[in-house]
Amino acid sequence: MAHAHRTPVLSQRRTSLAPTARTLAENLWLPALFLAGLLFSYLVAFHHPAPHHIKVAVAASRQSTAQLQEGLDRVTPGAFDLVPVGTLRDAVSAVTHQDAVAALEPQGNSFQLYGAKAYGATLEPLLQNAFTGAAQHAGKTLNFHELVATLPGDAFGTTGTYAALACTLPCYFVVVGMQRAVGFNRRRQCLTFLGCGIVTAGLTYVFSVYGLQALPEHPLLLLHLFLLTQAVALTAYGLVPFFGRFFPGVAATLFMLLGMPSSGGMVPVAMVPEFFRFLHPILPLGNAVDALRSVAYLDHTKLARPTLALAGWAVGGLVLILLGWVKQRWKLRAQEAQDEASIQQTAPVDDPSMELPAPTSLTPHHHHFGEQEPLLVGRVVDDFGFPVAGAVLTVTTGHGRELLRARTDANGEYAATGLSEGHVLVLVSMPGHLPSARWVLIDASSTATQDFQLAVALEEAPVAH
């Protein structure tokens, strides 16, 4: 008998574990993604930066350059690619035009090394150490010269990276937050992203240029900061209909977990693993860093590629938004076609990927800042116009699936939000009254109002026996 009572208990425990595990997985996947990203992206990229084929223009003959290359490869194989260019002027020009990160001129008993802090302050000590050893091996000394110095407020040449990051994170979180902005349709949300991009880029520019004096005053800097905001915001928003509740993780992976290690801002791109070097000219953050560096310090050279890449991400985001709209319209038409056989009403739109908030009843009162705005409000009264308190409202889809249940307050009022666009059926019932039902069209851009008047139910007279 004891064994017979034990089995149901174990079965109940097993069934109770499944919802718990699912709940944990649904709520912990995003922190787990960030943990994995920080471990396998940031730590892998930054734990041991090493030079990879750093180009150095050498004002010397091919034979002399080849001999120097052979000596460097014995100490640090694959770290430097020496390119003979003929004269010192050509070597310096290669640095300022982003064809090389440093210039070298073997001159008498010394090596003259010309670097550019604009490429990253961590590169200069690396270059000096490597070529000091090469000069000593040849019995010479090394003299270092700064070609492209950074501004006093940008001592390490990383302000552009932080400015780009300041335009990335807020725009990402604006998209995430706007998914719960009830009453905002696509057009309003896109206008919000545009306005937030203007404000974010403007504040970042003003603070970096005039507050910190870390970037030069140039309108192209402001333009590229704005392009970055739109590349992030529009692309992240465009991912919503295709990834649903998982779009924050996909967007965070693109713009932060992979974007930062491959940006070339904190650690020069020539010193990170090959995978991140491959992503550098593709992802928005790396292109923004290149654009800001080119405008600020390198006379706008090689500016076309990052500009087109940022614009391409923004246009790609608009294309995704358009495809998401087409996807939603297609779902709506398919739903309508299914419901025409059973009901003579327009079917509701059930697209949780675009409406992340769950259907929820609200306390009827004046909307305060920071609270969810209602999508459906109304009042329930009796035949005499008196409020019916405690009436039960049930909102269902065209298929009869219950979305939410609410009760009217002391004034007979009710409010609800989180409903998908389209028609819903609202049923009101109250003991002692006849129930009432209405079809209501929900539009994300406005609040629908539906009042009810419940007639008093007449009791049947008892039948005499």
Question: What coarse outline follows from CA principal-axis ratios?
Answer: elongated
Task: Give the N-terminus to C-terminus distance in angstroms.
Answer: 54 Å
Q: Which structural category fits the helices and strands? A: alpha/beta
Spans of 5+ residues with little confidence (pLDDT < 50)?
A: 1-12, 343-356, 460-465
List key phrases describing it.
single chain, 465 residues, alpha/beta, five-stranded mixed beta sheet, 12 helices, elongated, disordered C terminus
Give me a quick take on this structure:
With 465 residues, this protein is α/β, with parallel strands linked by helices. Helices cover 47% and strands 17% of the residues.
Can you describe this structure?
With 465 residues, this protein is of the alpha/beta class. The protein is 47% helix and 17% strand. It has twelve helices and 14 strands. The chain has helices at 2-46, 62-75, 88-96, 123-137, 159-178, 186-211, 219-238, 240-243, 247-257, 274-279, 284-297, 304-339; strands at 54-58, 80-84, 102-107, 110-116, 141-148, 360-362, 376-382, 392-396, 402-407, 413-417, 422-429, 436-442, 448-449, 452-454. The protein has a five-stranded mixed β-sheet, sandwiched between helices. Strands 6, 7, 10, 13 and 14 form a five-stranded mixed β-sheet that branches. Strand 4 (110-116), helix 4 and strand 5 form a beta-alpha-beta unit. The longest helix has 45 residues, at 2-46. It is elongated, with a radius of gyration of 32 Å. The model is unreliable at 1-12, 343-356 and 460-465 (pLDDT under 50).
